[in-house]
Write a structure and sequence with these properties.
Elements (H helix, E strand, L loop, with lengths): L9 E2 L16 H7 L1 H27 L14 H9 L3 E5 L2 H7 L6 E5 L8 H8 L4 E5 L3 H7 L3 E7 L4 E2 L5 H6 L1 E2 L3 E6 L5 E5 L5 E8 L2 E6 L15 H9 L4 E5 L22 H20 L13 E2 L1 H15 L2 H19 L8 H12 L3 H10 L5 H22 L3
Parallel strand pairs: 2-12, 3-4, 3-12, 4-11
Antiparallel strand pairs: 1-13, 5-8, 6-7, 9-10, 10-11
Length: about 400
């Protein structure tokens, strides 16, 4: 590929050199400023994770049906608050051990047990029977009934239609009528009281006496919920049953009550080396992020001016054109140089158009204007061979014009 001859070299402008006492090594403050992004990012992630764990734990604690801390319509927080306002000392526990610690005076304590997930075993229900003299069982399962009230059994589901007391239990008489669905219970033996029947030997409240304790089986669970407690005599029934003693322990069995302790997690089934390896990988990831994410250090100072030969630029551009197969771009660069030199040869001003150059060159060289225009403007090389041929023709045309104007 031909190119215009090199006429001169170019020099880059000089730059002011740094003072001898200028410190280029990054300081601690500069390093901390560079790491500020990662510090802020990690802090935000930790805060989001902590808030998420706290929020999820709060939801788990308050979403349970008839939960003493659940403010939703199916919870029982309103009942617990009213009992507290009436002077009852309410304790909310989630394990059998905590319930034992919370009961100081069995005779003056009402123990409410709501085993939603049926976690307690026969032995644990046997322990519950000896914790307090007054016990209220909310929707007890078969195991609970076998241990605490063997003469009582479940008798299907009861709808939320209004039911009258029809018994001499003081709390039921105070209520008169209750509403709200739940399980019904039945018995074939003499018990202390059977209340709120639905006409088919199914009752929402049954009270028995066993092992010296007064045990109340409560099936009308919806009557105690936040959304239904204000209906009919629901509030009177709940407040009189649960507020008959100065102390109330509301016990909802949790994971700590499971046989053998809390349920096994994935960590319990993992080999001992998993945790160290995971920690090592996390540390390696953090170190890699800091290493690859850091900004570049200070710039290297180089004394100026620096002389760059024009031929180096020309060859560099030529290699780029060749690599990109930019044949037309390379030919146009040669054409621009040729047209500029031809215009000066024929004496045209700097603002002369390409058509004026073509007309003058055609007249001096004796060639047809269409051939000159095709060479200087319109021809498009299809391959490297045609590019070389057009480059040679540009040199021949320039040489022909030069020989006409400057004969030897």
């Amino acid at each position: 590929m031909s190119a215009s001859p090199v006429r001169d070299s170019r020099e880059l402008p000089s730059a002011e050199l740094p003072a001898d006492d200028e410190i280029l090594t990054p300081t601690v403050r500069a390093a901390a400023r560079k790491a500020l992004f990662w510090i802020v990012t990690v802090t935000i992630i930790l805060i989001i994770a902590a808030v998420g764990l706290l929020f999820s734990g709060t939801l788990l604690a308050t979403e349970e049906p008839l939960g003493p801390e659940n403010p939703a319509p199916e919870g029982a927080k309103a009942l617990v608050q009213v009992l507290g306002n009436q002077g009852v000392d309410v304790s909310i526990v989630a394990s059998l051990t905590a319930a034992e610690r919370a009961i100081d005076d069995p005779a003056g304590t009402t123990l409410v047990v709501n085993d939603i997930d049926d976690l307690l075993t026969e032995d644990q229900w046997g322990e519950v029977a000896g914790l307090a003299d007054t016990i209220v069982l909310i929707d007890p399962d078969f195991t609970a009934l076998t241990e605490l009230a063997p003469d009582v059994y479940q008798a299907g589901f009861v709808d939320d239609a209004a039911r009258t007391a029809d018994c001499d239990l003081p709390a039921a008489e105070a209520a008169g009528t209750v509403t709200g669905g739940g399980f019904g219970f039945s018995t074939t033996e003499d018990v202390v009281a059977t209340c709120f029947g639905n006409g088919s030997d199914s009752y929402s409240v049954i009270q028995v006496e066993r092992r010296g304790a007064l045990i109340t089986i409560l099936g009308a669970t919806e009557s105690m919920s936040n959304g239904r407690i204000v209906e009919e005599g629901n509030a009177a029934l709940a407040l009189n049953l649960l507020g008959s003693q100065p102390d109330l322990v509301w016990y909802t069995p949790g994971f700590d009550d499971l046989a053998g302790g809390p349920p096994a997690t994935i960590a319990d089934y993992s080999p001992d080396w998993v945790v160290p390896v995971m920690l090592t990988l996390v540390l390696a990831f953090i170190a890699t992020a800091i290493w690859r994410g850091r900004r570049f250090g200070p710039l290297i100072v180089e004394n100026l001016p620096v002389t760059v030969r024009s031929s180096e630029t020309m060859h560099g551009r030529a290699r780029l054109y060749q690599k990109a197969s930019a044949r037309l771009h390379a030919l146009d660069s040669l054409r621009i140089g040729t047209i500029d030199r031809l215009a000066r040869l024929v004496g045209l001003p700097r603002l002369a158009t390409v058509d004026e150059v073509i007309t003058s060159v055609a007249g001096l060289s004796g060639r047809d204007q269409r051939d000159v225009r095709l060479l200087l403007v319109d021809a498009v090389p299809a391959n490297d061979q045609q590019l070389v041929e057009l480059s040679d023709q540009l040199l021949i045309l320039e040489a022909a014009v030069t020989s006409r104007l400057r004969p030897q």
